Fold this protein.
Amino acid sequence: MAFERIAVVGAGAWGIALANAIARAGRSVTIWARDPQNAAQLSKDRTSARLPGVRLEAKVAVTGNITDIASEAVLVAVPAQVLRGVAGMVTPIVNPGTPVIACAKGIELGSRKFMTEVISETAPRAMPGILSGPSFAIDVARGLPTAITLAMRDETAAAALAGALGSVTLRLYHSTDVRGVEIGGAAKNVLAIAAGIVFGRKLGASAAAALTTRGFAELFRFGAAFGARSETLTGLAGLGDLILTCSTPQSRNFSLGIALGQGQTPDAARKGLLAEGFDTAPVLVELAAAKKIEMPIANAVAAVLSGRMSVDAAIESLLTRPFKAEH
């Protein structure tokens, strides 16, 4: 399991950032852009409007032909709601047992499937995994210190791939708690929208701290109900990612929340912004309801995004909940 040849599927900000990081780790990297024109431009100019100010490392090969990505591991850096279609395109190319790693943080609409479940269904010959944690594409692309988690069922493969992808500036921890890592990444996006609403409504730092803390309690309850390990939920992929995305407008989900808090409609706030929490929120609360998991913050966010509740009504619903013991 040397993993010397790595493919990155998706030439958005996160795909470019990962390709740069892997190249700096000394691996052979090929990045695939779905749009042939995008592939040609990225190959020629080595820059992308999706990640301004960043140059693609010279060692990264660029292609618009999916058949060129045959490699020892594939990182799929596309949004959660298009993962199924892209993973299906990868199926004929990968050898049995090849790691295919989802780099999106979400839950699929309709099917309510987590990312590795989508990969298992669409690329059955692959070994699915998830890469998640507190990371902004611009930081990773520029080589700023970042630590994230790679989870796969096979611990030996996870450790080997984490070692191959990691470098001095990108530290990867490996785990076999696939579901815990997936839940941390998906749930924190929804909670980051709530944190953004608090910021946009200028409710203060005390409210932000309370929201983040109680939001983590929801994330933890949800994860525990689905068998996630406590150390995963309190680690990088859970608490770590929640802290990052609930604290800065660099987070697209936080920015979406700010716009909502400032009075924009959900559709207007979302326009031109890929915030995974928008689509994850309704699925998250559906899964929680099915298991009778109490998630008032996530429910309020889903209600605001669907237009069933105003921001002010959502805030009031949370503030007027019955007093209870903290546990």
Summary: The first strand starts at residue 5 and ends at 9. The mean pLDDT is 95. The longest helix spans residues 178-200. Residues 109 and 279 are 7 Å apart (CA to CA).
